[in-house]
Amino acid sequence: MSLPAPAPPLYLVDASLYVFRAWHSMPADGFHDADGWPTNAVHGFARFLLDLLERERPRHIAIAFDEALDSCFRNALYPAYKANRDAAPAELKRQFAYCKTLCAALGLPVLAHREYEADDLIGTALALARGDGFRGVIVSADKDLSQLLDGHDEQWDYARGQRWSAAGVKARHGVHAHQVADYLALCGDAVDNIPGVPGVGAKTAAVLLAHFGSLDALLERVDEVAFLRMRGAATVAARLREHREQALLYRRLSTIACDAPLPDVAPPFARAAADAATLSAFADAVGFGPMTRRRLETAGGTGIPGSAAAMAEG
After folding, report:
1. pLDDT digit string, tens, across residues 128-161
2. What range(s) does the 5'-3' exonuclease domain occupy (predicted)?
3. Of 48, 86, 193, 228, whose CB neighbour count within 10 A is largest?
């Protein structure tokens, strides 16, 4: 009896994470476009993206960008959401646009929306693709995305070379994949400016969810908390009663939406043919050297002529 064929992978890339990493890790000196604007993040992101394409040769892939940093639906629910983050400078915003152009020119489906974050777009794409028999490979180190894992899905911290499935989430975060949003609601998430329930830290949140299973069950049976063999149990119970509505709100903020609109792309998110002319113009505009041009040629299956200026820089 033959085993069923494994589900084909859909690679879902949290692009903004890798653009930010390149922005912070690569010096701006020496990387400029034709107008003198820095392109260090573009060069770093291109290296990451080409590494991924060369290594995995994905047939189905989507690249998600954050365009909802101050216009997300979560801001209407909770104005303080991500209010601790500084606005991206003009130099970085310009590079984000370049990175989107690069992905589109390589024939890679691009996900972006003014009201939904990259996490929501990834979750929506994965939910749609599962209906077509795909499994997800989420390329990101973001712990929030672990809540999406199910079955044969994987999350891949590309920089550290670490992969894990839904079964591996508890070892990493102390709770199961389906409990991640509840966990963040309880202990908070400083990155997103979600405070959590006062006095409930990561360990306490994990203990509570291990015992009750979910935030709903915990709040329904909150009177039991005081009798748990846990330090400060009575105080935790009182805080949970006092901050019940806030905890439910924080869970809404922490839960990835899987029904975001994807107006320009659709399953199965197949790679399309690269646009040779756009890639050539792009390489000139951002100052790619000959090695990157050759890699683009291989990744895109196109011939990209190298300009004399780029060859000299290269």
Report:
1. 999 999 999 999 999 999 999 999 999 999 999 9
2. 7-272
3. 48
